Fold this sequence. Notes:
Immunoglobulin-like, 2 domains, 6-stranded mixed beta sheet
Amino acid sequence: MKRTLVIAAAALAAVAAPSALGAPPAQTLTMSASTTAVKFGGSVTLSGKLAGGKFDDKRVTVRQDPFPVDSFANSGNATTNATGDWTLAVKPTANTRFQARSGKADSPAVDVMVRPAISLKLSDRTPKRGQRVVFSGTLCPEHDGVAIALQRRTAKGWRTVAKPVLADVPGATCSSYKRSLRVRRNSSYRTRFSGDADHVVGNSRVRRAAVH
């Protein structure tokens, strides 16, 4: 009886072997980002490789799920080259999770964080000692009603000297701020957004006031 079972098993293996050898390998898909943090308005290049079976001239669909990260939607499509490589430039507007799909193969998810774009200008960069200077600028995308930090550089680091509240800019996708301060010494200033759920920490360029 045992000999019969052994022979039967061997026969089944012989029949199954050609089928297994002829089965196409499972496809795998990878994805990485050129940067995992980008300033609002900037682009990120997503790229990866499709491997296994026939991988050239295959469609890759990139899906995006911006904050609050609850469902994916198509962001764009790419096509693999002769070696299975693909790339796609995207422009996230908020913290976003990306995933690529080709056929039945899904890539691991990649998160890209977005810093707001912040500007800062001084009404007078060479004021007299004790003169009032207006510090103003914009933050994009809009965060109306949020307080940001106007900071002055000291020997111990950056010190917050005012917390202007962002105001609406009619017809625009940015918020604005303005604050008047007396300047009594040569100083460097910046504006800082401390970050929230949909955007990470961001700073403006440093501006210097030279008192005379």
